[in-house]
């Protein structure tokens, strides 16, 4: 069995810094270890559901992982719910500024202005509106399950934070949770309520000092909870096998999948 995880930075940041995807204490690896499976993690800093959908459409490494995925975990959508008074593109373009000293100054200015604007705007708008988050999640689900129709899908609902960068506020979270939960119920996706698992850890200051990312105890709890949703209460057809009573879908190209979605 192979577990495909699409994630934001919560999937590869620990209590101090980012880690390689094979770090065994990260929640995707914990989930894989609990299930006795390998884990393919594709993630990025600040990834929203839109970033993940772009990766599914354009990254050949993700294509390869989808072809062998027996279960899929969508660890995305949390960033979508965070306050974003400045367009995400502003942050993403900072690294291309030259000389490097200009990029460093722009990064400091962005952090300072962002926190102030979050407070002034009372935490609105969010990085993505709930409807756009759900649209991208559905595109991902259709693309993956078209090629791997037997693969169950798990969705992590947004976490909580105490980050000064986001003004310590999170007013958009409830709307995103509601929209994502409704979408999951309508599509057979298995939702995981992350906040109850990590709230005491994060809000109590026991996680990463940035107020967003988790320490290892929270990674362990989330990974075990993900595994719990994927244990064989529902049959999973392993990679490369066929069940005469439940055949695999016809082979499709990625162009076919994009047209269908």
Automatic annotation (TrEMBL):
Please give the InterPro entries that the UniProt record associates with this protein. Answer: OctT (IPR050023), SGNH_hydro_sf (IPR036514)
Naturally occurring in which organism (per UniProt): Actinomycetospora corticicola
Q: Where is this region: Disordered?
A: 235-261
Which domain of life, per UniProt? Bacteria
Residue ranges that the Swiss-Prot or TrEMBL entry lists as coiled coil: none
This chain's protein is named GDSL-like lipase/acylhydrolase family protein
């Amino acid at each position: 069995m192979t577990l495909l995880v699409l994630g934001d930075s919560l999937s590869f940041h620990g209590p101090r810094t980012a880690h390689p995807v094979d770090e065994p204490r990260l929640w995707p690896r914990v989930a894989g270890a609990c299930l006795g499976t390998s884990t393919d993690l594709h993630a990025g800093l600040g990834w929203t559901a839109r970033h993940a959908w772009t990766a599914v459409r354009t990254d050949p490494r993700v294509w390869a992982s989808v072809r062998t995925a027996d279960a899929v975990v969508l660890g995305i959508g949390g960033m979508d719910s965070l306050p974003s008074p400045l367009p995400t593109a502003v942050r993403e373009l900072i690294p291309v500024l030259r000389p490097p000293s200009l990029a460093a100054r722009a990064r400091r200015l962005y952090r300072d202005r962002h926190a102030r604007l979050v407070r002034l705007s009372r935490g609105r708008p969010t990085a993505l509106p709930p409807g756009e988050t759900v649209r991208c999640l559905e595109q991902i689900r259709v693309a993956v399950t078209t090629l791997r129709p037997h693969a169950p899908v798990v969705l992590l609902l947004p976490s909580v934070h105490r980050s000064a960068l986001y003004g310590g506020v999170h007013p958009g979270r409830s709307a995103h949770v509601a929209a994502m939960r409704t979408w999951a119920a309508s599509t057979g996706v298995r939702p995981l309520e992350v906040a109850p698992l990590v709230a005491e850890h994060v809000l109590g200051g026991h996680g990463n000092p940035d107020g967003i990312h988790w320490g290892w105890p929270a990674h362990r709890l989330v990974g075990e909870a993900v595994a719990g949703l994927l244990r064989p209460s529902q049959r999973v057809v392993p990679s490369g096998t066929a069940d005469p009573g439940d055949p695999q879908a016809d082979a499709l190209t990625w162009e076919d999948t994009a047209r269908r979605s």
